[in-house]
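Notes continue from the previous slide.

Worked example: a multi-chain complex. Inputs as given:
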Amino acid sequence: KQEVTQIPAALSVPEGENLVLNCSFTDSAIYNLQWFRQDPGKGLTSLLLIQSSQREQTSGRLNASLDKSSGRSTLYIAASQPGDSATYLCAVPTTSGTYKYIFGTGTRLKVLA
Amino acid sequence: DGGITQSPKYLFRKEGQNVTLSCEQNLNHDAMYWYRQDPGQGLRLIYYSQIVNDFQKGDIAEGYSVSREKKESFPLTVTSAQKNPTAFYLCASSSSVGGPEAFFGQGTRLTVV
């Protein structure tokens, strides 16, 4: 059974720091991995989707890497800003015939001005 | 604009009442999902549907019901049998071909009064 873990659960950093958020999964046979952002009381916004054949994806100051063999993905945030403060979640779809998404519990990020 | 619309944003339910949460998507996605989010527990799957007129129970389906009469709509009913319905409910959709990316609505916060 696929399990997804995110470490750390919470992170507080001063503005301008480069950050690494971690996501681990137990079953390496994944189709893709998706990173989301969630602001308080809001839905999930998709940040990056990495297909199983890819090693990394970039969008602006965000870079996500994927290492299937070790069951890990990292989300790198460059030059963090107070507006980056949110909860970041990673998710993988199950590899059975139906696409269900298994989520980590998230990393709550606070960037201090 | 393409996306997923959930309504209402806030919903209050009296003990013993059934309430229905709306989810509409115009992304032409085949698959739709309902998740429940509680503090500290992450997202848990309630029901999902891969095609019209078909849906499957997720991990916590007891006390909930759904229908999928149209491709773009996937309403969730929280019945009186759900003992602890106060939570944040998120609807999502994805295409079902080739490693889909999931998209989420803005959520409905349900409170029992």
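Summary box: Residues 36 and 46 of chain A are 5 Å apart (CA to CA). The two ends of chain A are 41 Å apart (CA to CA).
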